[in-house]
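Mods, move this if it's the wrong board.
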Amino acid sequence: MARDLDTHLPENTWRNRVLDRDGNFLYTGDTYLANAIDNSTNAVNTIDYAHHEVHAGSTFCIHLADNAVGKATEMGCLFTTPAGAKWFHCVYSVSMGAKAVFDILEAPTVDVTPDLTNFYTPRNRNRNSDKVSTASSVRVTPVANQATLILDGDATPISADGTVLHTEVIGGAKKGKTASDGHTHEDEYVLKADTTYYFRVKGDDTGDNNLQMSMEVIWYEHTNKA
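Not the wrong board. Structure tokens:
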């Protein structure tokens, strides 16, 4: 439903309203739809879709850090995505002081007996939202809104890597680069539904011990409309 451009609002108001292709105002009920132009500065205010999902309370994150890891350590996080059309749009950032390889494994073979013991509740990046993640931990009895952590000194639960979705050298082996640069939604992976993923950092047992490692995995959960 629309209202004519020249009869309902003064010029200094209608110039900041949304118009249809025929030059009519768009509105819902008695509320005109405003566009992204700031009234005082005329600046265009927009955010990208991934940022919008933060505001919507649909973006979650996992953080893992250790200040004194061993040079041959394996660390990372495991979770399983839900079945259905709610897909995870995922990015990551990883830093390691020692020479290491960072992998994202899709559908690895995981030994959960005896049960894995370190778990993490994904944080909602909108701290005013009560939404929780649909990720589930990898364990004997999976738990919703939970991820599994592999910490320094834990035995690896992986007997087969599955699909190595992403792999790169980080740390001391790569001059001028100690960290992965994947932290932008232009580089996101849309993860497969009902699938386990392992974000893994593995040192190659050279260099020194007592080095720093950190990992951040961020995703928003969006129901696919296609």
